[in-house]
Amino acid sequence: MRDHTLPRIAGLILGVSILMTGSARADALKDEIAPTGKLRVAIGISPAGGAYWSTRTETGGYAGVPVDLGKAMADQLGLPVEYVAYPNSGQITDAALTGAWDVSFLPKDPERETKMLFGPIYEVTDATYIVKPGSAITNFATLDQPGIKVAAVNNTTTMRGAQAHLKNAKVAGYQTYDEIFNLLKNGEIDAFALSRGQLEAMAKKIPGTRVLDETFKQTVTAVAVPLNHPLALAYATKFMAEVRSNGVLRKAFDNNGLKDTPLRGQ
What we know:
The structure is a single chain. By secondary structure, the chain is of the alpha/beta class. It has two domains: 9-124 and 221-255, Periplasmic binding protein-like II (D-Maltodextrin-Binding Protein, domain 2), CATH 3.40.190; 125-218, D-Maltodextrin-Binding Protein, domain 2, CATH 3.40.190.10. It contains nine helices and eleven strands. Strands 1, 2, 3, 4, 5, 6, 7, 8, 9, 10 and 11 form an eleven-stranded mixed beta sheet that branches. Helix 2 (65-77) runs antiparallel to helix 9 (248-255). The radius of gyration is 23 Å and the shape is elongated. The chain starts with a helix and ends in an 11-residue tail after the last helix.
């Protein structure tokens, strides 16, 4: 009679080995992507949400596409989520090397790629300018003149794009959307550079302003993790592919006022 004990034992050992290897991989991922035991999601705050920007809620929490994606990622990892709020994406970038956050969803450009690792792009938007109430500026040619003051959120992809685009007008950086909103409303600046969707929402709040029709650059938004986090990047890349295919990404857009915004990128 054939003894089946040895094959059974070999199979059991192989199964345990596979389980242990999978468990070790999961532990290594959690150690890298959430060293504090929480998934810390860096978000940028403005009064108008979007694919990158988030808003504060009346209950003291946060709402936005990055908020929803961060929660979905934390749930999948079996971890609590913690949101780390910043006034702009430039400060998120500066904090990437300090260990203050674990994952973010923000505009990507070559300068930022030296400070963090980016995964798939999930949104592409046009950047343009809004001009102050009563302005005679109607296009880029009349905007790009000596003495014209253009504001942008400091150390952002849009600010760098505006500085490269405008040869005569002066581009100055400010820390928050709110600060620039008030400057524009009071006529203390001539224009504000930002994504078209954000500016169109702003135009509804400041009568007499105008969003210019032209586009000076396209801004791409993607998931990001700090440098030297290869396991986190591989996981974030897989996660974004999954939420795109299973409808979670579409739902995050729809729930945050972006029902007419197509999913773009990879």
